[in-house]
Amino acid sequence: RKEVEQDPGPFNVPEGATVAFNCTYSNSASQSFFWYRQDCRKEPKLLMSVYSSGNEDGRFTAQLNRASQYISLLIRDSKLSDSATYLCVVNPSIYGGSQGNLIFGKGTKLSVKP
Amino acid sequence: EAGVAQSPRYKIIEKRQSVAFWCNPISGHATLYWYQQILGQGPKLLIQFQNNGVVDDSQLPKDRFSAERLKGVDSTLKIQPAKLEDSAVYLCASRPLAGLYNEQFFGPGTRLTVL
Questions:
Q1: What are the Cα distances from residue B50, in Å, to A24, A38, A46, B47, B91?
Q2: How far is A15 from A11, CA to CA, in rounded Å?
Q3: How confident is the model at residue A94 (pLDDT cuts 50, 70, 90)?
Q4: pLDDT band at A98 (very low <50, low <70, confident <90, very high)
Q5: DSSP state, B9?
Q6: What residues does B36 pair with on adjacent strands?
Q7: Do A100 and B104 touch (CB under 8 A)?
Q8: For residue A109, which of A87, A89, A76 has the smallest C-alpha distance?
Q9: What contacts B62, CB < 8 A, 6 or more positions away?
Q10: B98:A98 CB<8 A
Q11: Which helix (DSSP H) or strand (DSSP E) does residue A28 occupy?
């Protein structure tokens, strides 16, 4: 089993659609979780951290299920500017942020069409 | 605040040649990472520095890759000799020392093509 697995994509959706990305991780001791966004030929940038209780930032909602080792990202009311690759990212270290190493999934490509 | 700087942005070499990449992290960031991102994949960690010490280089192919951060600021990553499968984007990232959810900030990357 790969350390971080994501939906294969690509996701092609119309503007205004709601789209959900799923991700599973293999290391049950993983401590911190993130979604990064990567635009074409650009560097990854942090979209949001994922907290145990779930968290929301505008149109974006992230959820974590530790029992199932599952992370999700929901995007509501998709915009053209949301088109990018979304990377599920896990810090597997039991030391969490003091190590800071990140394991990236392959990413899921989203294309939002007019 | 200036971001992570990397150079060159693009490099084309032939196999068996050598190449070096340079990274200047965000000022004050103690931790520096080098990642390799092959087309269609997520970034894969090659090496992590904390100040001028190596924290994790378990995934660095040490027979051909080397990296240093002598003064705890700038870093260089070298490949010698390059292979075709080294074609990838090499990303440098930095972060402050402490904090569970501290973000890693990535540079624009160096796109390497090995012919």
A1: 29, 25, 21, 10, 17
A2: 12
A3: low
A4: very low
A5: S
A6: B44, B90
A7: yes
A8: A87
A9: none
A10: yes
A11: none
